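Go through this one:
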Amino acid sequence: MIKKIIAACVLGFALIILLSSMFIVTEGEYVCIKRFEKIIDTKDSAGLYFKAPFIDSKLTLPNKKIVYNLEASNVLTKDKKDMVIDNYIIWHISDPVEFVKSIGFISEAERRIDAAVYNTVKNTMGTLEQNSIINEKLSGRGEFDKIVTEEVARQLSGYGITVYDVKIKKLDLPIENEETVYQRMISEREKIAEQYRAEGQYEANKIKNEVDKQVDIIISEAKASAQELIGEGEAEYIKILSDAYSGEKKEFYEYIITLEAMKESLKGEKTLILPIDSPITKYFKDIDN
């Protein structure tokens, strides 16, 4: 019975030793093996591994890109005006041994990231005026982010950290300054709108004047054409009259006119006295003959 108990104890102790010596590394993590607070090995590939029981301990760290959102902070621009800036950073533990030696924990890394990003953003914003930032007349936010990213990466490089990107998530004004800036922006937009309206009115007047000019030209040409047609009509009328008073047509025309005069003269009971050389007398003589 005692032998069974001893065997069970030995088996249990062996199982405890086996379990304490085994550890699993999953995807996306580092496992650092420490012996007497000194890192003796680091595993970064997924799988089952063994360590010395009781004397070795393990520390797990993320082996992936980490997105860390920083608290919004106030910074001063070049012209000593407040801006509220909100950033995020994408970083990665590239050297776990150096990271553990210099920092040790993720929380401490975040504290140092906060300080590095804040100081860099504050110094960079201090070279820009608030008006240029609000009106986005910079070379571009991308250039600003690039400068900040490079400087933060330089400051954190000694901690086994790789910085991939530092971005502005939100750039705003302090609440007490918002109304003033908004009114100024509204005023600027109204000036631009007024300029557009003035340019539009100028173009409209230009088009209207051109149309009026074309209308006057068309009317003048129409009047000239009408006068030309009237002149041609009068010329034709004169030609017809001229033809009527020449040659055989002249004699016929005179005959018709004489008949019309005789008709008017002989209406009713009248005595008509005519000179011998009157055209009407001539035709009466022709009738008698």
Notes: The chain is about 60% helix and 20% strand. The helical segments are 2-21, 96-102, 106-125, 130-134, 141-156, 175-244, 247-265, 279-288. The two ends are 190 Å apart (CA to CA). The longest strand covers residues 82-93.
